[in-house]
Amino acid sequence: MDSIDRAIINQLQGGFPICEHPYQVMADQFGITESDLIQRLEQMLEKKQLSRFGPMYHAERLGGGLSLCAMSIPDDEFDHVVDQVNSFPEVAHNYARDHELNMWFVLATETPERIDSVLEEIEQATGYQVYNMPKQHEFYVGLKFEV
Amino acid sequence: MVLTEIDNRLISEIQGGLPLVSHPYAEIASRIGISEQEVIERIAAMQEQGVIKRMGIVVRHHELGYTANAMVVWNVPEERLEEVGNKIGSKSCVTLCYQRPRRLPDWPYNLFCMIHGQKRDKVLNFIETMVKDEGLEDIPHKVLFSGKRFKQRGARYQ
Fold first, then answer.
1. Cα four-point dihedral sign B98, B48, B46, B95
2. Is the Cβ pair B14, A52 closer than 8 Å?
3. Predicted local confidence at residue A123, as pLDDT
4. B88 domain-assigned
5. Which residue of A has its CA nearest to B18?
6. Could you tell me the residue ranges of all domains in chain A?
7. Any CB–CB contact under 8 A between B93 and chain A?
8. Are A96 and B147 in contact (CB under 8 A)?
9. Overall number of domains in chain B
């Protein structure tokens, strides 16, 4: 990764133009050609440095439901339960964390009402309780990583 | 904002990513049978209304070296939530800061923030300094580093 790749990552986390030739507009800022920018983005996606290139939606404003959920799973059951939980398409990401509540995942559903029913389905499938912790107030969101 | 049929088709069409071609919005337009200008106007309108938070890239932070990913949770008395939430949210290393419900008796924490760093000891130092600088010594907190990541993808919409 060279300094231009780093500039692309830092800059394009902040937005992307909505105009006829957006890659050309950004390429001019980086001092490279349009095809060079497109190629670099292709490579970063291929190397999985980027998870996505496109829109970030606001789940609630799209009419969807979003929540952070946690479970407490015994170590010897963990791999099995993680597979069960991740088999639900509504589970967007899932991390193990070092706490009694050791599995943390984000649920994204098409309607807010679906959150409760998916939680129930997960509880039934796994036999473990799900702690539902939806966002109540946003103090700050700026998820951006400098490289 | 009331989303039109066209908006919904656009949302679904671009959620997997923008085409990596010289005129990406024209390509989307031809896929759904409207003009490039209309695609540009609708996407801009959805961004203005906050349905689209932003266009651009989402990084896989782990692959970029941010492997120490801490969720720090705080048990904040209601009357101090606003103050503490804003203080923590204004710190440069904090990437998210949300109020969430307690789940008593197992889970007493009502304020969650994320700190992504390259090394665990640096993240811990940062938290320690933040507690001192902001006078948070009397607010119980816990640091939950992430272990294995099992899934990372954006939400999917029809």
1. negative
2. no
3. 98
4. yes
5. A54
6. 3-46, 65-133
7. no
8. yes
9. 2
Classified as helix, coil or strand, B66 is coil
SS3 A100: coil
- Residues in chain A closer than 8 A to B88 (CB atoms): 139-140
Beta-bridge partners for B55: A55
What is the three-class DSSP state of B52?
strand
Chain A to chain B Cβ contacts (< 8 Å): 236
Domain around B28: 5-48
> Are B35 and B89 contained in the same domain?
no
Q: Is residue B94 one of the residues assigned to a domain?
A: yes
Interface touch A56/B148, C-beta < 8 Å? no
What is the average per-residue pLDDT within A10-27?
A: 96
Does the pLDDT value for residue B157 go beyond 90? no
Interchain proximity B59–A49, CB inside 8 Å? yes
Site of tokens 């010897």: A76
| Cβ within 8 Å, pair A54-B107 | no
Does ipTM surpass 0.90 in this model? no
- Identity of the residue in B55, B81, B157 whose CB atom sits nearest the CB atom of A54: B55
User: For residue A84, what pLDDT band results from cuts at 50, 70 and 90?
Assistant: very high
Could A61 and B50 be called an inter-chain contact, meaning their C-beta atoms sit closer than 8 Å? yes
CATH architecture observed for domain A65-133: 2-Layer Sandwich (3.30)
In tens, the pLDDT along B24-69 reads 999 999 999 999 999 999 999 999 999 998 999 988 888 888 889 9
Q: Note whether residue B119 is domain-resident.
A: yes
